[in-house]
Design brief:
Blueprint: E1 5-12, E2 15-23, H1 46-49, E3 56-68, E4 71-86, E5 89-105, E6 108-122, H2 126-136, E7 149-165, E8 168-179, E9 185-195, E10 200-213, H3 223-235, E11 240-252, E12 255-266, E13 287-296
Antiparallel strand pairs: 1-2, 2-3, 3-4, 4-5, 5-6, 6-7, 7-8, 8-9, 9-10, 10-11, 11-12, 12-13
Helix pairs in contact: 2-3
């Protein structure tokens, strides 16, 4: 998979134009997601970074950098499309357009991003297929159009900050996905703090994701179909929260070893970041995830 492939033209000393495949700047750390050595964790907090799973942008963007006094300013406008494979299906963003604003002053960085697009989302897992077949055989066949298809308006918005002073590193971010159908509208946030002790950097992270609207609000008076739709809505809702602790060790000049332990709790009508085998399967009780990684530069 090609993650970057572009032509870049410097229009002015502070303004450049890029055409090709770049990164979709949904989030504060989108540009460094493939350079995990730059981040303190094994992975960025999933309560935020799973809200927009599209990574590549095939299109065009313009970057403008300047300074206003002691503040460094970077602005980006972009447009294009993106594709991604999902389990038993695929998804596309069409007519994507957006803007990003980044501000830096000393050890403080701020970033704000907004993207609007059209979403095509096609599920194909067995639970979805059974539910759609049952709906299409009933008087409520139109409800199936809320669950999968083409052309739903979608918006992604995020705001984040990073503060680095002496041995401290504090990162926080808020993001929101607003969509008419095919998947739930959710918001998420995280706050993470790390402290450097020589070659070691322990960190702690708290994160939460909540649902703003389910995939479908359709009212179905048939109990079996209503229960099936409720289960489908829950299976496409990743709401939940987590607490994590970890340690980064700079083992050498270009190697970082990381370990972290996270405790995930799914919301009452959600599955957190986990995807059960069946639509009706629930996530019972908290789940502990232990992760180890080695990040290196060469």
């Amino acid at each position: 998979h090609i993650t970057l492939a572009m032509l870049r033209y410097q229009l002015l000393p502070d303004l450049s134009l890029r055409v090709g495949r770049t990164r979709l700047p949904f989030f504060m750390l989108s540009d460094s997601l493939n350079l995990n050595y730059a981040n303190p964790w094994v992975r960025p907090p999933v309560e935020v970074y799973t809200l927009g799973v599209f990574a590549d942008l095939d299109g065009i963007d313009a970057l403008y950098s300047t300074s206003v006094g002691a503040v460094d300013v970077e602005m980006q406008v972009f447009g294009g499309r993106s594709n991604i494979d999902i389990p038993d299906g695929n998804a596309r963003l069409r007519q994507a357009r957006g803007a990003k604003l980044g501000l830096s002053y000393g050890g403080l960085s701020l970033q704000f991003t907004h993207t609007a697009a059209r979403l095509d989302l096609f599920w194909g897992d067995p639970g979805f297929t059974r539910l759609v077949s049952a709906l299409q055989a009933s008087p409520f066949a139109a409800v199936a159009n809320d669950l999968s298809g083409s052309g739903s308006p979608v918006q992604f918005s995020s705001a984040g900050f990073q503060w680095e002073e002496s041995n401290w590193l504090v990162i926080g971010e808020y993001a929101r996905r607003k969509v008419d159908r095919f998947i739930s509208s959710n918001h998420g946030w995280y706050l993470s703090a790390a402290y450097r002790l020589g070659n070691f950097q322990p960190f702690v992270t708290v994160a939460r994701q909540g649902m703003d609207a389910p995939t479908s609000n359709a009212a179905i008076p048939v109990p079996a179909l209503a229960a099936g739709l409720e289960a489908f809505n829950a299976s496409r809702n990743s709401a939940g929260n987590s607490v994590g602790v970890g340690l980064r060790w700079e083992a050498s000049r270009n190697i970082a070893l990381k370990g972290q332990v996270e405790r995930f709790h799914a919301a009452s009508q959600g599955r957190s970041i986990f995807r059960p085998d069946a639509v009706t399967q629930e996530i019972r009780g908290p789940i502990t995830v232990i992760s180890l990684s080695m990040d290196f530069l060469f």
